């Protein structure tokens, strides 16, 4: 599973979907990450949270973020 996200809302929706696919509730994920449930909800709905929190959430789920210039013709491989 991967995504091309063009907004914080899309990143949050991707994380929410990945969490749900794993059968983890928001409260459980907040506890795992050491976030408040309010912070986790804000992150999943694209509200203003720190980049460190987004990165921590991505890493916990086994993902990483790759940022490329808008309009770049690139292919990301492992």
Short description:
Helices cover 51% and strands 0% of the residues. The chain has 4 helices and no strands.
Can you offer a commentary on this structure?
- The chain is mostly helical and 78 residues long.
- Helix 2 (26-33) crosses helix 3.
- The protein contains four helices and no strands.
- The model has no long low-confidence stretch (mean pLDDT 90).
- 51% of the residues lie in helices and 0% in strands.
Output mean pLDDT.
90
Alpha-beta classification = mainly alpha
Task: From the alpha carbons, calculate the radius of gyration and give it in angstroms.
Answer: 13 Å
Q: What letter string, H or E per element, gives the SSE order?
A: HHHH
Write down the overall geometry.
Answer: globular
Helix content: 40-55%
Looking at how many chains there are and whether they match, the oligomeric state comes to single chain
State the separation between the terminal residues, measured CA to CA: 14 Å
Tell me the total number of β-strands: 0
Main sheet overview: none
Query: Strand percentage, roughly?
Result: under 5%
The number of helical segments is 4
* Low-confidence residue ranges: none
């Amino acid at each position: 599973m991967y995504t091309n996200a063009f907004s914080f809302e899309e990143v949050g929706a991707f994380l929410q979907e990945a969490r749900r696919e794993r059968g983890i509730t928001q409260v459980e994920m907040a506890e795992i990450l050491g976030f408040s449930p309010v912070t986790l909800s804000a992150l999943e709905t694209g509200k203003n949270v720190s980049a460190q929190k987004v990165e921590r959430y991505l890493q916990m789920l086994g993902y990483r973020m790759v940022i490329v210039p808008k309009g770049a013709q690139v292919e990301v491989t492992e």
